[in-house]
Amino acid sequence: MRILVLNPNTSQGITDRLMGAALPAAAAGTELVALTAPRGFPYIATRAEAQIGGAVALEMLAEHHAGFDAAIIAAFGDPGLFGARELFDIPVVGMAEAAMLTACMLGRRFAIVTFAQALGPWYQECVESHGLAGRLAGIRMLEGRFASVADVQDEKEELLVDLANKAVQEDEADVVILAGAPLAGLADKVKARIPVPVVDQMAAAVKQAEALASLRVRKATAGTFRRPAAKPVIGLPEALARRFNP
Amino acid sequence: MRILVLNPNTSQGITDRLMGAALPAAAAGTELVALTAPRGFPYIATRAEAQIGGAVALEMLAEHHAGFDAAIIAAFGDPGLFGARELFDIPVVGMAEAAMLTACMLGRRFAIVTFAQALGPWYQECVESHGLAGRLAGIRMLEGRFASVADVQDEKEELLVDLANKAVQEDEADVVILAGAPLAGLADKVKARIPVPVVDQMAAAVKQAEALASLRVRKATAGTFRRPAAKPVIGLPEALARRFNP
Amino acid sequence: MRILVLNPNTSQGITDRLMGAALPAAAAGTELVALTAPRGFPYIATRAEAQIGGAVALEMLAEHHAGFDAAIIAAFGDPGLFGARELFDIPVVGMAEAAMLTACMLGRRFAIVTFAQALGPWYQECVESHGLAGRLAGIRMLEGRFASVADVQDEKEELLVDLANKAVQEDEADVVILAGAPLAGLADKVKARIPVPVVDQMAAAVKQAEALASLRVRKATAGTFRRPAAKPVIGLPEALARRFNP
Amino acid sequence: MRILVLNPNTSQGITDRLMGAALPAAAAGTELVALTAPRGFPYIATRAEAQIGGAVALEMLAEHHAGFDAAIIAAFGDPGLFGARELFDIPVVGMAEAAMLTACMLGRRFAIVTFAQALGPWYQECVESHGLAGRLAGIRMLEGRFASVADVQDEKEELLVDLANKAVQEDEADVVILAGAPLAGLADKVKARIPVPVVDQMAAAVKQAEALASLRVRKATAGTFRRPAAKPVIGLPEALARRFNP
Amino acid sequence: MRILVLNPNTSQGITDRLMGAALPAAAAGTELVALTAPRGFPYIATRAEAQIGGAVALEMLAEHHAGFDAAIIAAFGDPGLFGARELFDIPVVGMAEAAMLTACMLGRRFAIVTFAQALGPWYQECVESHGLAGRLAGIRMLEGRFASVADVQDEKEELLVDLANKAVQEDEADVVILAGAPLAGLADKVKARIPVPVVDQMAAAVKQAEALASLRVRKATAGTFRRPAAKPVIGLPEALARRFNP
Amino acid sequence: MRILVLNPNTSQGITDRLMGAALPAAAAGTELVALTAPRGFPYIATRAEAQIGGAVALEMLAEHHAGFDAAIIAAFGDPGLFGARELFDIPVVGMAEAAMLTACMLGRRFAIVTFAQALGPWYQECVESHGLAGRLAGIRMLEGRFASVADVQDEKEELLVDLANKAVQEDEADVVILAGAPLAGLADKVKARIPVPVVDQMAAAVKQAEALASLRVRKATAGTFRRPAAKPVIGLPEALARRFNP
């Protein structure tokens, strides 16, 4: 089974973090291939960046999806996810979606813990877009600056654990998600210090991509996720244009 | 007052329809300037197209917003609207949003009536993204093909009126929105044949853009719609890149 | 265009505040006519007072609506609004409704900031009656007494600005509404001290009344806002009785 | 125990129907006293009428509540109910509220079945104002005219039973409420022909008023239902004015 | 009228508390019979205990319901309530349900105040299962241990009153429910110290059981609470088995 | 990895169907062990049966969970699931939950298609208990009797496919779940005849159990799913009693 791990951010350091968490989670026989965004933002954090970054994710998928059994859009707000499900025939999993659905099986309400204030509103809209607001205990965000986004999980480890514990004690969270691609892999390091299940977003995404691929469901030809009708397009990258106008 | 009417579709014919409805609605002293998307889709109708078309809308605004007092994103699903509100200092109105909020002042529940089955799911998600699902009586869509998207309002006028009347009688709609840019201007022609208020999406958008511009509210420097923090970007059109990295 | 500004409170001082905010907001060619309630309460603040004050608003409209293109019920809880929409052929705008819908176009969630604890529950029910609870960041109310309701905006200006800033910082409000008729006109004075858009309720109501009047929508003859069927009434003021029994 | 049965409609015939259903439901030792509205509408059926009729209900309560242990506002949309709870020290029960809460103990979802199309929207808003929309299976309304509102339950008995059975079969209602004051007492006559529990609105209201009165709870002096602060009023009937300005 | 008061806990001391609150609330002519669970938990406090305790409640009802006009499941989370409504022909009232519905008639939002942290999640799910989350101001729980569950209301009386007052002041509760079977009867002792109505869960349940029994509604033979279809069962207590396989 | 497949029904034939769907879905290295309920109902279909069947599931888990890495409660309404998550240290997956969460990754709204009218209400409450009502397109149930519950999927195959296609065409379902343990394994046989992804509940449950087990999350010692505090119990099967009173 071949799974494409698509980082819609332009930071190679984040891709490395993602793969560091993904590889140990993969089953025997699963091959993971990483891809870093060729254009866009070092780290998507706002609605405007997600609008553009999601379009970049579609371009990347259009160019590279061939030969894969599933793909993961590996940014916590799931940029471009729903469009990708229309356009492509393989299952596409969002990293936020996978983490949240996994958390739903481990408790009643999950907390999202992340490393920057700026991310809260986008994550909140992501939770709502998946219809999971009723399962959310709250979003907790670190205040203050950090030296490097790719290493923020090392720099802020203690503070993030404190925040997770506050989410458990004050927000009645049953499960904690350490959210944002730069935190991939942190769950395993800190889980002994947090008294509820801690979900690693990237590991969850790998398991869900494996699950969907192995279920061999068909691509919809009806319903709201069928392929868009063919139409002329102007000014799109060639591979992407072909998805709309084969 | 100068208002930019931004058509995120590539069809000049649709822009003409939009302006045909916009101009009579404008107040004395309002100047409307139309802009047609230079790249993208002839008519946005799916999540994938909205993802890309919304990014195109941001590019267009970045290049052309200077000197305007407000802008209208003139496609019914409001592609790129929330990102635009982060990036730009002038008020930006979505055509769907303007039509729905106007409808809220004319009754309890509004119906959305449109000309193609494919548009329903996107419109539904648009309604939900604005938090207005509780005010929606239902979405009614014509079945069948049409000769030309720019002239569909002429070709299907009778059927659209029938559909609107069904929405009133069967769905208990208090107000009807004739939705989708190609239907701009139709409301006025048919309103005598529908027994509840009929909102023209483009006229509503012009009035709301005028209202917001005249209220002279400030651009947020806090809250979730403040400008994104400056950051290096790769591979974006120059004007858009400058909005992120001034 | 002639717009009736109906103050359902009996305080002439509040009417003066309302007009002080309304006149600068009006477009060239808009004539505003003010009306103060001849009976009722100096300031509506509870459900019981709104029940009675709303009935008074209907009496006032029945007697005075002729010759107007639109009317504004200028109390923040919108007393009598939905009944007025059934009874009269011109558009009727609620001041709370206009402020909230305008706020929806300027951010995700709005805060309501007001000058007295007693107003909170009524405003909360008003928000819910419009189906906008999902867009509300919270209601913040000043504690403590004030010297005169008509001048409370001068006496408490600093405290109200502080409260608005707390709503932004602690409740994540994207927009602030300074609510309650006695605060009409305050937004303009303080907007430089609050880092998000501040909506003036009366200015918003004027713009929405102008917008609705210029859209020239028809009065519903079907749906839930059609005119009530004629019936004999007992003991109502003559003009109001005629609306029910022409 | 003395309970005031307040008919906010002006029809004595409806009061008679209400008492016909109320008296057999009363416990030994419960005295019921009926009151018919001295002004207003023969039968409240719209938002405008409820606005005015609710104010009339407050006038009636102000003049007559002394010496009673509880009061019932005996119109299905509960006009004036929430204001009455602020103003008066005795428990006040709404007939719709009592019927719906009783239905909640007899099944999951209840249907509201009534005799006129015009009543649907008002009842829908009543259900929502009580926060019970999630328990509503639907509202079914008879079409067509009737000879006399006071006798509509005799004239339409068969059709109402048919409608109730449709609500059970097609809307999956677990319980049926025959709604609208003119239908008081009908439940008992038809319950053998409907395969789920049928709640009589008036009987339910009597039992709930007895229950509340016997629980001897105190009048709130805090919270949102405390008595409104004293204030000068203008032009209200004397007894009502005294409730606001003792 | 004979009402069965079923305590699904195994503590006789709690049954005594329940009957201490129930007897003064009963009308003349109402006979109350208490039953303590023969197997299960001294005090149900978790989902797992409610799963088992609810099954025990069904066993108890199957064995003892004959000759009663109504039954009360007298634990605050209403274990087994919905199943009981399917299986038995007499009305069955949940103690939490009765308290909450009664509270709905005394204000807008009610607070649940209880004596142990462990109970919060179960009570929250109980509120949601009744569709009443929109009416809940919040759940307040005492911290710390107590000497004896049967006497916790004496030991913690002051702290519980403080908590109730906090719910009124900080959570804007209009009504307080002192929740959990061990607190039965406390409301009457403390109501003068809490400025809003305080509902006694057991007294409320007695009044609602009396109300339902006196309304003489029929057992559903359609809808989702009709009796389950007959089927072979294995390994159930004999009386319970007969309810499924008569 | 060892996974316990727990059938809370007493029908061995259903267990065989479940294992027939489970085994092909299991990864290399996954060992599945089936268990059929020793007491209870041949097929759980009502709230009362789920109350008891869920308690039986807890008994079964208490006796047999040792040595397993995860367990599946293999009935569509997930009887006993939330209690099991409190009591046991291994992940426990509900078959309905697994199917619904998997469906969420394959579209916007899923339809539940099942073989008997009686199952609808229980499934509806199951969807709501998971907070997924917003993702449900509808529940479609076959009418009419069947010869044998274990073979109903063969007998009704055509009708179930028709029903699934209706759910796609009329309810706008993006995904179909063939629900109810007796339908396990049917998805694969019919998926070519349904134009959207069809989720096999049992296969989905196996993949989710594998995913959770491989993520190696810890058992909560805080939050609402921590183990219940130790307490004396009466009359429970010995293994179950020990889970509560070690």
UniProtKB/TrEMBL annotation, chains A, B, C, D, E, F:
<dbReference type="InterPro" id="IPR053714">
    <property type="entry name" value="Iso_Racemase_Enz_sf"/>
</dbReference>
<dbReference type="InterPro" id="IPR052186">
    <property type="entry name" value="Hydantoin_racemase-like"/>
</dbReference>
<comment type="similarity">
    <text>Belongs to the HyuE racemase family.</text>
</comment>
<dbReference type="InterPro" id="IPR015942">
    <property type="entry name" value="Asp/Glu/hydantoin_racemase"/>
</dbReference>
<protein>
    <submittedName>
        <fullName>Aspartate/glutamate racemase family protein</fullName>
    </submittedName>
</protein>
<dbReference type="Pfam" id="PF01177">
    <property type="entry name" value="Asp_Glu_race"/>
</dbReference>
